[in-house]
Each structure stands twice: as C-alpha cells, then as structure tokens.
Design brief:
Length: 125
Amino acid sequence: MNTPEELRYTKDHEWVRIEGDEAVVGITDFAQGELGDIVFVDIGTEGEELAREEVFGTVEAVKTVSDLFMPLSGTVSAVNPALTDDPAAVNGDPYGNGWMVRIKLSDPAQVEELLTAAQYAELVG
C-alpha cells in the first residue's frame, strides 16, 4: 500500500495535499483498493462552501457506492474534469491524476488535525 509521507489523511480514507491556501483532495490507495474498479465519480459541489465531514460527492465502483467526505472546511474551487471520461484514474493513480477536488480553505488550522502518513498506515494496518 502506498502512503506518501508528504500528504495528510482522514479516517474516511481521503488524502490531502496542501498547496498554499488550497488543498487538493482524493481517496487513498487503500480506499481505491477496497472499492475495486471505479466506474463513476459524481461531484456536483463545485463552488459550494462545505464544512469538514460534509459529503462533497460519491464514487461508484462495480460493487458499491461510497460517499466522499470533506477533509477540511472550505469552498470546492475545482473538480478534476478528467474523472468524467476516465474514473479509473482513481485506481491507477490515486495520488496524481486521480485527484478529485481542490478546496479553498476556510480554516487552515484544521490541517493540523489530519492524520500523518504514519498514523494513517497504523489505522489501516
């Protein structure tokens, strides 16, 4: 399982990469592996301000549909357009081309509450 050290993580299996006052968010390698082949990503919250732990979209795999939760409070500033045509990018490159949203942070201090790579690796065992 790949858990990049430079990222932060949630207990709901999202990863976060901070870029200035924005965060790039996706689901972890562990999560995509548990879901299986991803066939559809539905994120209709672009431009919306959401609180941490609110649902920002769903990901549909062959076996299940799973909610996607905001790791941090903020406004969804962008949705990865590539996932419309290629949702399987989440399986193939979860930390790169498979990113899901960019968030304009409303409370950057919340980043400190996210899990480190070591804490996340311990969580998923």
